[in-house]
Amino acid sequence: MQWTVKEASEFLKVPEDTIHDWIQQRGLPATLFNDRYHFNRIRLIDWALENQVPLSVKNGSQYPSLQSALREGGIHREVPGDNLSEVLRETVGRLPLPSGSNRDLIWRMILAREKEGTTALGNGVAIPHARHPIILGVPKPLLTLCFPKKVLDLKAPDGKPVHSLFILVAPNIPSHLHYLERLGHALHDHEFFGLLQSRGTDESILSRLTSVEDAIPA
User: Fold this and answer.
1) Which of 40, 69, 132, 198 could form a disulfide linkage to 143, CB 3.0–4.6 angstroms apart?
2) What is the pTM of this model?
3) Residues 13-38: tens digit of each pLDDT
4) How far apart are CA 68 and CA 65, in angstroms?
5) Which domains are assigned to the chain?
6) 74-113: b or e for each residue (b if 16 or more CB lie within 10 Å)?
């Protein structure tokens, strides 16, 4: 899906002049065609997550809530591993995937994203596969939160080690984009982010996600 400058400015909640400035100064990904900039939605979301730019999201979706997706995927604590590869392998092994899923392939798919550049977003959070969706025949979208036993140095833009990893498994591209946008929105909520930092209880994290989504305008 290609967006115009106007649509990108509405999505990122900034004036159109700022969009033009970000293209030149902050590497906002855009394609110039017929003297007009166009934007790929998934690359725009990925850039916004990496640059900690808030996203404009709305309620009224046919998809289950972000909190429901996290309940399906689960919150995993004290995940062992001395590096990202080991932590991801352990986490993928815990995902509630359909029988027969090739977990080794999924692990390699997620890990491949890191080769294109750090997947750490800053402030201790990482989403290793944002630009490369994991699309499987799952009956419901799965959002998994992993708290590594050891914080990970993923060369984040702000230099902070990663304490929270998210993995999203979706049945199709539209649902992947939907949950990625909502997760990006939630990460700008101070209370939700504080619960990630303090590794709050499962129910406190899930409850806060519900509150964040309920506050999204229709």
Assistant:
1) 69
2) 0.86
3) 999 999 999 999 999 999 999 899 99
4) 5
5) 2-50 (1.10.10), 66-214 (3.40.930.10)
6) bbbeebebeebeebbbbbbeebebeeebeeeebbebbbeb
